[in-house]
Amino acid sequence: MADPSDLGAVWAAVLRRIARRPALAWLGYLRLERLDAGRAVLRILPGHRELAAFATVDARLDQISQELSAVVGQRVRASIDVSAPAAAQGEGAGASQAGQAGEQAASSQALATHRRRALDLPLVKRALEAFPDAHLMDVREEAQSPADAPQQADSSEAADSIDAPAYDASDALDDDAPQEEDDE
User: Fold this and answer.
1) Measured CA distances, 72 to 9, 38, 62, 96, 145 (Å)
2) Which of 4, 24, 142, 179 lies at 20 to 30 Å from 158 by C-alpha?
């Protein structure tokens, strides 16, 4: 059993326990932030925010709780803090709390709008109908549409920019193949 005061050792023990269980590999993208009085707080590692919706489902939190409980030898209830770490929020940068709250509200509203638009897409609707237990985990900015992309003047300009030998259809003919004769 790991010492609950040594967060690194506790989390390393959890990761060793799940090493041979690929279904729990997602735990490797979490970090144990706090463990006291039977409560554990974890945070998703930077670059893996798409994991938030998946990992914060009650069943996943129960899995984390079971693993932590087994490692420390006492009942532990896990939660995941999905807020940005203090350093990422501009701590020490002079930003006011009111300004941060306004930015977070605007960001949340924009995310909700993007999420609604994604859920309205026909392909997403069909996928969610085909897989009833599925849910939308993350929404990203829309890629640049072909209409917005820079256009080339004409196709010959595009062809001139390609460094490839010209195609000669006669190269495709097999000289050893029997040729059909024209009967006139």
Assistant:
1) 10, 10, 15, 40, 52
2) 142
Cα angle value 139/140/143 (rounded, 5°) = 135
Q: What is the pLDDT of residues 41-86, one digit of tens each?
A: 999 988 888 888 888 899 999 999 999 999 999 999 999 988 866 4
Q: Decide: residue 66, CB within 10 A, 0-12 exposed, 13-18 middle, 19+ buried.
A: middle
Determine the angle formed by the axes of helices 122-130 and 97-119, rounding to 10 degrees: 80
DSSP code per residue over 94-141: T--HHHHHHHHHHHHHHHHHHHHHHHTSHHHHHHHHHSTT-------P
Q: How far is CA 136 from CA 29, 49, 133, 177, in A?
A: 19, 13, 10, 57
What's the sign of the alpha-carbon dihedral 18, 76, 81, 142?
A: positive
Structure tokens at 34: 């706090």
